[in-house]
Design a protein that fits this description.
Number of helices: 30
Strand order of the largest sheet: 1-2
Strand content: under 5%
Distance between the termini: 62 Å
Helix content: over 70%
Radius of gyration: 32 Å
Largest sheet: 2 strands, antiparallel
Shape: elongated
Structural class: mainly alpha
Number of strands: 2
Length: 761
């Protein structure tokens, strides 16, 4: 008996810890300091609680559980997510979430479903009250910390925490909508509390309102408005159970939400960071396109990013945010519909609608004690508001946890009926149940070990990133390889490939051409990334970039770069970057080819690719510039100059473009325009030696001998070993033309490229 009680205590303590810690928990040891850390905490504490209960069931030989029809819908939702994970485009990411959308992963739903059953199984009504109070205190600490952050009072020593947008829930807007969903429940909770708890809840209400006013976010006031209306509806039905103070608080909250929605008031002049999210219209369009591909099960949980990249179209290409990648749509519902299909949406909607039905049925049809009814409303109102929120806002782990927590508490209060299953010796059903429990224990333990292993791998990965930022490439490679040994994630292989490229480049710059090993490792790592996850465009992008960087060093690199960029374009057809990079490889092949027929063919392919890139994004400067290079390479100097002048409109501060345009004008003999463009290049980068070199030549051609001499002396200072520059200076000092007796070459220089986020800068 003592053993059983101890096991119950372990289970309950684990849940209490989880409820208190999830809103405030974070650690600085990985790249994702919030949701990934919370996922790790959730997996550990839920696993401990579950395994304790399984051992208890096996010792007692029975299972006792409060039954409610909503249990079936929770299991059905989990079952649908499981099937969607099996048929997913990317099973590992759908299961674990990381490095994609952690909150929408099957693993999160699995642990939250287990938590739901644990709360229903373990806790009595009085303990539900304590759970809610504990969660409220955690939210109080969260809101106080977030308010300090927004006000510019940074109390934590970490670099990432020294910005006013940081809080322990997620984006500032995420915390705002969370507080808006919960405020009416906090008001009711105030009337249920005594002494110090009452003071804490009162402070929680004040701090929550203060944060909402500080952030001044319309969606949070809209959610608050709806939640207040819902509460006042219940108040109208059950006036006798509410104290006057509860009504007053609710009316104040209602007035605040209406005033700020209508009049757009701002009390506190706080500069909050810009938050960028997808619009509902684009999210709806992407969801429809996704359903055409996978109508039943979707593309798999947590894979909205892949749907976004494939179906976003060119609408965003006309904005500053064209190269951003969104892990979530505008709302949780669109995420579910696009990633788990019609079946997932039906399961989710069924759970919400059934919850609302049983909640109203309980409140309107049954005669409940005052305290029971108040506690039921404390848990039911968040279920309603979080359900509404799922159609208006995307989710994160704290929001997901909050919904399941209040949903579990609500279902716990719906019924007192317990069903008991006793394991009797010799019966096949009981043997099967015992076997299932043992299997569940082993599976839970295995998943826990896998999570711990992946977590340690992520810690090593983050050490590698920090080493990269410090310029320690050996440290980067060492830590990334340790991370890969623990968990084979495509992100780790992508970055390892680029680390080996940096090491190779460093060796070449030092005059060491023993680079075969680094080249082979870079190629192998980029290939491993695409093999692990061939639907992730970032993997093909890095593989193409790797081969492109090794062109001329590794045989066949050009062809593999072209194939990789072609594959990337299939997964993100609206991105002009891949077409431009592919076109650059064809331009290179054309320049190096000895056959005039091949030259024409390769240049024609490059030209078509650059034009297609420009069609996708008319102001994409790299494509315009590379098209000019094709014209230049074909000998169409006038057309090249015209295209570069056009490109200058889109990239006025691109030093490479200014340089190339200056050189083109110089070669055409328009020395005045050459001088203007090269002076523009020097104004952007004063020590740009190649631009100084041609500027000196332009001065010489224009008869500005003193400026030419002064410019070449500057070039000599930057390149003291260059004999050609010394000869030019001698010519100028002797009164001769700068290039007398010299045949200069044109140093190639491409403009600064816009790169996707997976290509490390």
């Amino acid at each position: 008996m003592e053993r059983v009680e101890a096991l119950d205590k372990i289970s309950k303590i684990s849940v209490y810890l989880l409820v208190f810690l999830i809103p405030i928990f974070f650690l600085p040891f990985t790249q994702n300091v919030l949701d990934y850390q919370k996922q790790f905490l959730l997996s550990i504490l839920v696993s401990i609680s579950l395994m304790s209960q399984i051992v208890k069931f096996l010792i007692e030989g029975k299972i006792s559980l409060k039954f409610h029809p909503l249990h079936i819908l929770v299991v059905f939702l989990l079952f649908v997510f499981g099937l969607s994970t099996i048929f997913s485009k990317s099973r590992i990411e759908s299961f674990f979430g990381f490095p994609l959308s952690i909150s929408q992963s099957f693993l999160i739903l699995l642990f939250l479903s287990v938590l739901y059953f644990l709360i229903v199984l373990l806790f009595e009504k009085k303990e539900i009250f304590y759970l809610v109070i504990l969660f409220a205190i955690s939210i109080l600490l969260t809101s106080l910390f977030a308010s300090l952050q927004l006000s510019g009072k940074f109390i934590l020593p970490f670099d990432f925490s020294k910005q006013n947008s940081f809080n322990t829930v997620g984006n500032p807007s995420s915390l705002a909508v969370l507080l808006a969903c919960l405020l009416p429940s906090f008001v009711i909770l105030l009337s249920l509390s005594r002494r110090i708890i009452k003071v804490c809840i009162f402070l929680l209400i004040l701090s929550s309102v203060f944060y909402l006013l500080l952030l001044n976010l319309k969606i949070s006031f809209f959610i608050l408005l709806i939640s207040c209306i819902v509460f006042l509806g219940f108040w109208n039905l059950q006036k006798e159970i509410f104290s006057p103070s509860v009504l007053i608080f609710s009316l104040v909250l209602l007035t605040i939400s209406i005033s700020f929605l209508i009049f757009n008031l701002r009390i506190f002049p706080v500069q909050t960071p810009l938050e960028i999210s997808l619009a509902q219209k684009i999210s709806f369009k992407i969801t429809l396109e996704s359903l055409k591909e996978n109508p039943v099960f979707g593309s798999g949980p947590a894979t909205f990013l892949y749907q976004f990249l494939k179906h976003k179209g060119t609408e965003l290409n006309n904005t500053l945010f064209w190269n951003l990648r969104f892990l979530n749509s505008a709302s949780k519902f669109f995420d579910i519909l696009s990633t788990t299909g019609i079946l997932g949406a039906i399961a989710f909607l069924g759970l919400i609608l059934a919850s609302i039905y049983f909640g109203f049925l309980k409140i309107l049809k049954e005669k409940l004690e005052k305290l029971d009814l108040l506690l039921l409303l404390v848990t039911f109102i968040p279920v309603l508001t979080f359900s509404l929120l799922s159609f208006l806002y995307f989710s994160n782990l704290t929001l997901e946890f909050s919904f399941f927590f209040f949903f579990a508490c609500f279902v716990n209060l719906l019924t007192d009926q317990r069903r008991e299953i006793v394991f009797k010796e010799g019966r096949i059903l009981e043997f099967f149940l015992s076997f299932t429990l043992v299997l569940a224990f082993v599976s839970t333990f295995i998943i826990l070990i896998l999570n711990i292993q992946r977590y340690i791998g992520e810690v090593f990965y983050w050490k590698g990133v920090l080493a990269w930022q410090k310029g320690d490439i050996e440290g980067t490679i060492s830590n990334l390889e340790k991370a890969i040994n623990l968990s084979r994630i495509d992100l780790y292989f992508r970055d390892l490939s680029q680390a080996y490229l940096i090491k190779l480049t460093t060796k070449v710059q030092q005059g060491n051409w023993d680079i075969q090993q680094e080249a082979a490792k870079a190629i192998e790592s980029s290939k491993n990334a695409t093999d692990l996850n061939p639907v992730n465009v970032a993997n093909w992008s890095v593989r193409g970039f790797t081969y492109q960087s090794l062109a001329g060093i590794v045989q066949g690199a050009e062809e593999w770069a072209i194939k990789s960029y072609e594959e990337a374009s299939k997964h993100e057809p609206s991105n002009p970057y891949y077409l431009t990079q592919e076109g650059m490889m064809w331009t290179r092949k054309g320049i190096l080819s000895q056959s005039e027929k091949e030259k024409e063919e390769f240049f024609s392919k490059a030209e078509n690719l650059f034009k297609r890139a420009i069609e996708l994004k008319p102001d994409y400067a790299p494509a315009h510039f590379q098209l000019a290079i094709v014209y230049y390479s074909k000998g169409n100097l006038d057309e090249a100059i015209s295209k570069m002048e056009e490109t200058k409109i889109f990239a006025p501060l691109d030093v490479g473009l200014a340089f190339q345009l200056g050189v083109a004008y110089y070669q055409k003999g328009n020395y005045q325009k050459a001088k203007e463009e090269l002076e523009r290049a020097i104004s952007i980068v004063p020590d740009y030696a190649n631009a100084l070199y041609f500027l000196g030549l332009a001065y010489d051609q224009l008869g500005e001998r003193e400026k030419a001499l002064e410019t070449f002396k500057r070039v000599s200072e930057l390149n003291p070993e260059n004999e050609e520059v010394k000869k030019i200076i001698f010519n100028l000092e002797s009164g001769k033309k700068a290039l007398e007796g010299i045949l200069p070459t044109v140093p190639p220089k491409t403009p600064i490229e816009e790169k996707p986020p997976e290509i490390k800068q």
